[in-house]
Amino acid sequence: MVLTKKRLIAITLVLMVSFFILLLYAPESLIGHRDDNLLLFVPKILFLALTAAIAIVFVLIFIFRSEYISAQLNTFSRFKYYLKLLIKRDFVSRYRKSILGVLWSLLNPILMMLVLTMVFSTLFRNMFTVAFFPVYLLSGQVIWAFFSESTTLAMTSVIAGEGVIKKVYVPKYMFPLSKVISSLVQMAFSLAAFFIVVIVTGAPFYWTMLLIPIPVLYIFVFSLGVAMLISSLSVFFRDLTYLYGVFTTLLMYLSAIFWPVEILEGSALQNLIGLNPLYQFIRYFRYIVYWGKVPDLWFNFVCIGFALSALCIGTYVFMRQQDKYILSL
Amino acid sequence: MIFGLDNVAISVQNVSMKFNLSKDKILSLKEYFVKAVKRQLFYEEFWALKNISFTVERGEVFGVMGFNGAGKSTLLKIIAGVFKPTLGAVVVNGGVSPLLELGAGFDPECSARENIYMNGAMYGFSPKFMESKYDEILDFAELWEFENVAVKNFSSGMTGRLGFAIATSVKPEILIVDEILGVGDYKFQEKCEERIMNMISGGVTVLLVTHSAYKIREMCSRALLLEKGELVCTGDVESVLEAYGDTGSKKA
Predict the structure, then answer these.
(1) How confident is the model at residue B252, as a pLDDT?
(2) ipTM > 0.90?
(3) Is B100 in CB contact (< 8 Å) with chain A?
(4) Terminus of chain A with fewer CB atoms < 10 Å: N or C?
(5) Does pTM top 0.95 for this prediction?
């Protein structure tokens, strides 16, 4: 059987509908309370069904288009050295001509945290109280900073790669991918800074902190998807770069980074904030480093769903447009 | 069909390439909406190549001829994988070293050393492999003194020498050369030609663009002639040169 685009979409839809029907009668342990607000319950199930469908379609693609996949993997392994050098160059140029060098990566999140802690523990001290506020703050900040940095850098990466794209063949996804990976290295430093703050403030350690690679993987896949999408669009619409800065700022305020989500109690936003993928990733991260809880299956599904959807959309748009880049650069 | 035959190095099958010629590029969302509202989103189509087919056999030195604007560089860029053809397909069997432009893919901010590794990685070679070729490259390019100088400070001759040295030192199976044999002084040119001749006798397939009838006669075994994106003829060098002369006199 040949997997054409139309067939793939049809398979996804059929799978999604069947999963949806199945899940409506699934045990509560898997999907949470059935007496939830119906307005939330139906989209929740729909989303779950979509995630499962996409995952199966992924497997189908791997089985039926194995030739295509292995060709892609071959190209990737041919260019892995190039990817490595790109990341290395990013890193070197970041610290070129700075005295403190790599130390900045540690200092930056800590200083940022200090500023925000000062602001919120003096100016806005009556608004809310959060135990170990610096830890709470930094746990959100680490995730948000990774997302915002990786996507912002990746956005202009294809445009910046003009000199190479126009003259040599390299897989074009190398450019956004390298930016997301170098931001990941950056995030490792922020995580180190985070643990320093945990020790200094005397906040509790939990064994669940060992699960950190899981949310990191989720946010990595999600950011990669978004990075592919916007780096592709920005080739054709250069002014998106400015809009995106505004967008990330908005996202920062909507992701419950420096305020507890409880202050939304009773407002319309309380239901909507769950639709913000970044909020979910941050909450997941806080579950394991701040509250010391293990996220349940449903929570994992939500995160995987957001991450996979972003990756699917991003890859699809990027691959469709990549042959046109050269004509617009 | 030509698939699966081991002696074919490059097979170009019904390749056409279309470009959109817009009077001014639309590069922002704002402009796009303004033009869309004004209904000015028109492009002029331009076919740089029309239905080109030919094959190059392994070990052959193949010449590509044609006047300026005939589509030679577009064709080479498609074979090198830089452009994807609008229609048709290109099958290349073996590692390609494209010498399309002076210093293609160099990062001007980086030093010669970094660019050697970077450029090698672009062709899929590991830093370890490039290290083994490092001395040879700098010897040939005669750039030992400028090892750690940023390429942006290089003269065009130096950039060209470095590019040529890298592309030919990695022992490609197919070499694509676009009129850049005019790099540097006559001494270096001779050195380049000697090296290409050595590679040819070593069995490397070469695709060569040149305007010089002398060079075509001297080096190529077969050639093709392009005119305004169309394939005029393929065949032995003499008949193609004759056709080249004919189209030239028609133009004049």
Answers:
(1) 47
(2) no
(3) yes
(4) N
(5) no
